[in-house]
Amino acid sequence: MLASVRDLDEARIVFDAGVDLIDLKQPADGALGALPPEVISEVVGFVAGRTLTSATAGNIEPDAEALQAAMQSIAAAGVDYVKAGLFPAAWQQGGRDYAAVRACLGGLVPLNGVRRIAVMFADLAPPLDLVDAVAEAGFDGVMVDTALKTGHSLPDVATDDWLAAFVEGARARGLLCGLAGSLREGHIAPLARLAPDYLGFRGALCARQARAHALGADAVRRVRGAVQAAQHLAA
Length: 235
Description:
The chain is an alpha/beta fold. The chain has helices spanning 8-16, 37-47, 64-75, 98-106, 130-136, 154-157, 160-172, 185-192, 217-234; strands at 2-5, 21-24, 52-56, 81-85, 115-121, 141-145, 176-179, 198-201.
């Protein structure tokens, strides 16, 4: 289970619940809003290697130089993984230029000692062979999320067959594989049957299931329990 947090207080809540991966992002700034490096460093210091950490590099158009600089800044804060969004050019105006995304991937270089996860967005119609491009660029993992936080969850915008093919493609390439995107408790069991490495949550952990609101300890524990139950059933 990945849980996205925005500060140290929220990190303490999800750590106490036994979350496997603490992800740092600014939910008030779109899908992959980045937090200041000092906030990330504070959480990394608290975690002190007791669980995995990741952080988002921001909502960046496919520009290799800008994305590389953002990833390096986040990596310097000490997380285990940096997440880079594969946003097609002009995506907020309906752009779907994945040739630009592939070119951007080809211009990125590894980070010193920090693993990289590429994030595809199911509601932006990414081609499945983008998983191959991610692997060829030397990334360590790939996940699928939703870019447009308008109330639609991942299963609303991606078919079961597409998600199964995504997971299968990631595994075939030896990539860590995650599924996220406004997931609720009812999505956990069917998505767990696809056997991704992790499921990611933010809104389901918050008051009124609104991703910009504060996390609630009861909601985090409830979702954590549902993920654990689904793991046992899928085993």
